Amino acid sequence: MANVAVPSAGVVAKKKKMDSSFFKKGIFTAFISGVAYGLYTAFMTLGMAKGVWADYFYASPAKSTSGIALSAFVVTYLLGSLGSALNDTCSGIWCVIIALVKGKFGDYVKTLNSRAGRILILCAIIGGPIASSAYVIGLQMAGSIAVPISALCPAVGAILGRIFYKQELNLRMIFGILICVVATFMIGSTTLGDTNKNAFWGIVIAFISAVGWGFEGCVGGYATCMVDFEISITIRQVTSGISNLIILLPLWSLLAGENITLGWRLAGEAISNWTIIFFIVSGFFAQYSYARWYKGNSMCGAALGMALNGMFSFWGPFCCWIIIGLIAGIDGYALAPIQWAAAIVMIIGIFFIAMNPLDLFRKKNTEEA
Amino acid sequence: MAKKLPLNYAILKYFTTVGEACADDVIDALKGDYANYKAFKKPAIVEALMTAKANGLIDETRFDEDANGDVRIYYATDPDSAAVIKKYIPD
């Protein structure tokens, strides 16, 4: 066995600082992913309230630019998916540009045909077309209440992590999950008696996004510890954008009893409309958010990374309020006090899932000692 | 001629071929194939190694100080982690 020299106190201190810097960078990375998520939500929602989208959603009867009458089914489901498809496609284009600029595009192509790459593609389909559409449809049907509902994904991720990878799920984490469920009911209590009959189903559909993103964070996070995070997110967003456009839009068109090309025609209208600028901006923030989500998860662990990212339950409504409500002057984006309170309760629950709050004090005491 | 792996794969794969290694060893071993990569920089490789360690793919074995006064951390894989790496990144 090699004779290993004991490092000096100075080297040990440097090593501790290095570890601490890495951990703090992971926390900041995951935290900023939640802020960017709020910005992406706000710009996408704003885009879907202007231009051709206003004709789709608010004209009576709803109609496309070329005069096609749009049924309630098309307005709710197909347009929700269209918004998600445009956002993810713009995001995927941003990812490819960044990969090209950073010289990672070759590795992206090679990674696609590897085991981790295929896992990331599966995660992209579940977290992309399925979960993102559920999120957008939930937003359309239930408003920004959908944001904290979809923020249950860390809870789902913790449960799936236990099932798939035998990860830790102790009483404290279960307690955190229960806090999140209570917060969900607090939010639901403000809308279930509302005149908007779609709110309840909007919440149910938004929960599908929580399941999808929980799966993605759990399974994709594991694959990403082997793949560069910007390559992972390029796989995720390109797969999601393409599958949204070529699978989901025709599927919703057929389910609506319309011509299979209706979704693509509406996509053409939306892309050629000035509101596409909002999707270009939301796509940028989406790639930034998801890339940091993956990176944060891989740096400080999926549970803590997902909990910090899950703070988008606050940043989503906050950014919608600032950008859509205050800057764009559109009413209806202010949340009721109980909804704000519920979002905070949910954040507390998410932290219980991720970590023992007492550890923060213990760590502080250790550092002081 | 062997197909060139993505950089992060090559870094992890390298650890299945050596007892232990630090970031400088990784750079020396891979510079022939990856020196022209923009991401092939020591800070990025150090971060990749710390990330792999955080996810249990490699373990720290020891650390010391290099000639520049920087901390030099050595890592290695155990048989289980090596098997996981080989499963995800076959030869």
Could you please describe the fold and organization of this structure?
The complex is a heterodimer of chains A (369) and B (91). Chain A is 80% helix and 0% strand. Chain A has one domain. Chain A is mostly helical. Chain A starts with 8 loop residues before the first helix and ends with a helix. In chain A, 55% of the residues are buried. Chain A has helices spanning 9-47, 51-58, 72-101, 105-112, 115-142, 146-150, 153-165, 171-189, 198-224, 229-255, 262-272, 276-300, 302-309, 312-327, 337-354, 357-368. In chain A, helix 5 (115-142) packs across helix 10 (229-255), helix 7 (153-165) packs antiparallel against helix 13 and helix 10 (229-255) packs across helix 12 (276-300). Chain B is of the alpha+beta class. Chain B has a single domain, classed as Arc Repressor Mutant, subunit A (Orthogonal Bundle), CATH 1.10.10. Chain B contains four helices and two strands. At the A-B interface, helix 1, helix 4 and helix 12 of A face helix 1, helix 3, strand 1 and helix 4 of B.
Topology:
The complex is a heterodimer of chains A (369) and B (91).
Chain A: H1 9-47, H2 51-58, H3 72-101, H4 105-112, H5 115-142, H6 146-150, H7 153-165, H8 171-189, H9 198-224, H10 229-255, H11 262-272, H12 276-300, H13 302-309, H14 312-327, H15 337-354, H16 357-368
Helix pairs in contact in A: 1-12, 1-13, 1-14, 3-5, 3-10, 3-11, 3-12, 4-10, 5-9, 5-10, 7-9, 7-13, 8-15, 9-12, 10-12, 12-13, 13-15
Chain B: H1 7-14, H2 23-34, H3 42-54, E1 59-65, E2 71-76, H4 79-88
Antiparallel strand pairs in B: 1-2
